[in-house]
From TrEMBL:
One GO BP annotation of this record: regulation of DNA-templated transcription
Phylogenetic classification of the source organism: Bacteria, Bacillati, Actinomycetota, Actinomycetes, Kitasatosporales
Species this protein is from: Streptomyces xanthii
InterPro entries given in the database record: Sig_transdc_resp-reg_C-effctor, TrmB-like, Tscrpt_reg_LuxR_C, WH-like_DNA-bd_sf
Alphabetic keyword roster: Coiled coil, Plasmid
SMART domains: HTH_LUXR
Coiled coil segments of this chain: 77-104
Name of the molecule in the record: Response regulator transcription factor
Any GO MF annotation of the entry: DNA binding
Domain called HTH luxR-type: residue spans: 293-358
Superkingdom per UniProt: Bacteria
Amino acid sequence: MGVSFEARQFHGLGGAQDQEELYELAARMQVLRPDRAAARLGWSIERTDQAVRLLAEAKLLQPLPGDECAFRPVPPRAAAYRRLAPLQEQIQRMERRSREIQAELVGFHRAREEALGVACDTDTDTDADSAATGESGEGFGWAAGRETLRMLIGEEALQEEITAALSSCARDVLLARPGTGWWATTMQHCAEASIGSLQRRDVDVRVIQHHAARFDPATRKFAAALSDGGGAVRTLAGPFEGVILIDRQVAIVPLEEAHLAVVVHQPGLVRFMVEVFERTWRVAKDFAGQCRTTEVSKLVSDVQGAIIQLLAEGKTDEVIARRIGVSVRTCRHHIAKIYDELGARSRFQLGVMIARSGLLEQVQNGPHGCEAGAVRSLTAT
């Protein structure tokens, strides 16, 4: 049986000076309008339109929503993923057919084993089978029959993937939702829209967020609704990375800077992420939508402890703010308090004083030390 790949062929762009020059201009301007680009480059409208068309076909330019006369540049890596999408879909169809064929042959495998008088094991092959087919025993497992990693590009693709995953979920949803940004916003929207359906199906939903989320009205409302329906929200001071785990079989992991996400089916990777989530969950603090006054000082202390750790690692204010889920302004307010408490006048002096004071050891070994250790596994380097 022949295999026909019908992935669309694009014009070759390698060494195409017009396309490269126009793309460079688009990258600088961020919003490209062909008429303005033509005037700026001294090109004719026809020449500019031709270059725009080729770049659009190569997925390196895409029209702005609601304005087909304006384009924004797409990062080359993201463009490559988009161009590979048709081929990936065809590969997936072939993989599904491969699994169907394997399933069709299970009965014959059993008959053969019984005829030979050996134990029946449909999950593995004998050495003779492997040699005859050119496949190892592992070849008929998950690795050969399913796509282990798949890339999602943009908020719309992520939202569609999460919504579909939540609609088919049967056991549990484990969500680590740090801070703000496109991933957190998209995830919150999907979770809020699906919470009623999940609760009606008795799906266990657990969410980990930053302590800062306790002071957000929308998060309070979500936590209260989730708790009332049998789910749970807990919060952490320290940094952690985002992930959503569906039925402990699928993980969706965001790549914040690139507006990309990865769907993971590989059992070992998913199992590891579930274990890290569970470990982090055990040291996080319950949150049912109410933040008592008596808890505030302890939460602030935990947040400052996380900041001290990140300061000791040499992180910038912007990175620290993102990692603990607060604004840069709030983060700098906390850092200023730490400066005042230690009497430091510079970043270098602050680092020396943190090291000499034993404060870092107190953070790691004190009341929230377990928390800090747990989230370290989820922390980006």
